[in-house]
Amino acid sequence: MEKIASFQVNHLKLVPGIYVSRKDYADGAVITTFDLRMKQPNTEPVMNTAEIHTIEHLGATFLRNHKEYGAKTIYFGPMGCRTGFYLLLAGDYQSRDIIDLMKEMFEFIRDYHDEVPGASPRDCGNYLDMNLPMANYLAKEYLERCLYVIGEENLNYPE
Question: Are 22 and 35 a contacting pair, CB within 8 Å?
Answer without folding.
Answer: no
